[in-house]
Automatic annotation (TrEMBL):
GO molecular function annotation: heme binding; iron ion binding; monooxygenase activity; oxidoreductase activity, acting on paired donors, with incorporation or reduction of molecular oxygen
SUPFAM superfamilies: Cytochrome P450 (SSF48264)
Lineage: Eukaryota, Viridiplantae, Streptophyta, Embryophyta, Tracheophyta
GO cellular component: membrane
Name listed for the protein in its UniProt record: Cytochrome P450
Length: 437
């Protein structure tokens, strides 16, 4: 009996210690540390709207954004800060250009001084800058530990690994793939314009095109495989955004929900597709069908890095070894970010060209002078100054300008919306007029 009593007492003591520690951590993270930060900021003259416990200024931000996005913009204005970040406009007028507001229990410091921004982004502050816990936790089930959510030295290492895949000499070798993908899109646009009396929604075509390009050039996958991955990522993005709305509540990441179950199912399916691409890349290497170990794209570089770490070991600290989990996360990151950002860049550029015929004529004249009637080559791309610096954007814009004249549709509604990326809420319908038979 004495032994049992002692055991129960020991267990109760251990549980009490754990509960007290959990209580202290919660109080520190959600109350004491924010209060200390507010006092430190105020002592330096940095003020902002008063936060509420736990939720911070989230409710105010949500209300302001909802009000600003209630209707469409009345003109094709480039001044969209008030629509996307109305809280910034309001609070910068109230508290000055340097102020702080609270996203849950995490501070958000807003500043516009370029020298101060450079200092914050310098290596001296690398350990203190980057993505916050809420940002990383919110995308954990979406892109995991990929480069987009890496911080500090880990970000530097992951960037060092993937950067060579996007160097100009590498991209020049992929121009042929970009041209072939764009040719298919041009045929698709001709068919769509014929069916819709010349009007098409250009954004969807750009999304499919950039998805096809990155699938072929960076991951050695087919269009159908890439399409499947993109659809799964879109579903994951939507569900992740919904499931992370209450992350500011302590312990909410452990709450069961229908979103989490569906996210788990989608992640399992997505990782299965990515693993199939990894297996295919390894089979190509085993058969000796490429001059490099795994291939030539981004996936090949990630696999080569993982293999190198396995052969040499993780190193003294073991922090930066690539494993299969991290390779999958990087694939998800670049599948999403690589095609989404390029597609939106092209969509917004075409919208601007469609609303400014003089810009369109100037760009088309330059393309004709440099490329003639042929698709652009890698050497010719460097001579195009009107188009964007991105290889992919230059190829696509040059070929579209050579084949079509486009004007904005009367049905276009200017309503930029921020959903991780800046996108047109209702798409971009344009009228296409073919310039070539």
């Amino acid at each position: 009996m004495a032994f049992m009593a002692a055991m129960i007492t020991a267990i109760a003591s251990a549980v009490s210690v754990l509960l007290l520690r959990a209580l202290w951590v919660t109080l520190s993270c959600y109350f004491l540390t924010p209060m200390s930060i507010r006092r430190t900021m105020a002592a330096q003259g940095v003020h902002g709207p008063s936060p509420r416990p736990l939720v911070g200024n989230l409710r105010q931000v949500s209300a302001l954004v909802a009000e600003a996005n209630a209707g469409d913009m009345t003109s094709l204005s480039h001044d969209i800060v008030g629509r996307l970040m109305p809280h910034y406009v309001l609070w910068s007028e109230t508290y000055g250009k340097l102020f702080v507001y609270w996203y849950g229990s995490e501070p958000r410091l807003c500043l516009t001084d370029t020298d101060m921004i450079k200092e914050f982004l310098s290596s001296k502050y690398a350990h203190a800058t980057g993505k916050s816990w809420l940002q990383r936790q919110g995308t954990k089930n979406f892109i995991g530990r990929g480069l987009l959510m890496a911080n500090g030295a880990r970000w530097s290492h992951q960037r060092h690994v993937v950067a060579p895949a996007f160097m100009p000499d590498k991209l020049k070798g992929r121009v042929g793939h970009m041209v072939e993908c764009t040719k298919q899109t041009i045929l698709s646009l001709r068919d769509a314009a014929a069916r819709g009396r010349g009007e098409v929604e250009i954004g969807g075509h750009m999304t499919r095109l950039t998805g096809d390009i990155i699938s072929r050039t960076e991951f050695d996958t087919s269009y159908e495989t890439g399409k499947r991955i993109f659809h799964l990522l879109e579903d994951l993005q939507r569900l992740t955004a919904r499931s992370s709305r209450y992350l500011w509540i302590p312990g909410s990441q452990y709450f069961p929900s229908k979103y989490r179950r569906e996210i788990g199912r989608l992640n399992g399916e997505l990782e299965g597709v990515v693993m199939e691409s990894i297996r295919r890349s390894r089979e190509i290497a085993d058969e000796g069908r490429t001059t490099s170990t795994y291939g030539r794209g981004l996936l090949a570089m990630l696999l080569a890095e993982m293999e190198k770490k396995r052969e040499k070991g993780a190193g003294d600290d073991g922090k930066f070894s690539y494993d299969t989990r991290l390779v999958i996360d990087e694939c998800k990151t670049f599948f999403f970010a690589g095609h989404e950002t390029s597609a939106l860049l092209l969509t917004w550029t075409l919208m601007l060209l469609a609303t400014h015929p003089e810009w369109q004529d100037k760009a088309r004249a330059e393309v004709s002078q440099v490329c003639g009637d042929d698709p652009p080559s890698a050497d010719q791309l460097s001579k195009l100054t009107v188009a964007y610096a991105l290889f992919e954007a230059k190829v696509v814009l040059a070929m579209l300008l050579a084949n079509f004249r486009f004007t904005i549709s009367d049905d276009y509604r200017h309503a930029p919306v921020n959903v991780l990326t800046l996108r047109p809420k209702y798409g971009v319908p344009v009228h296409l007029r073919p310039l070539r038979p």
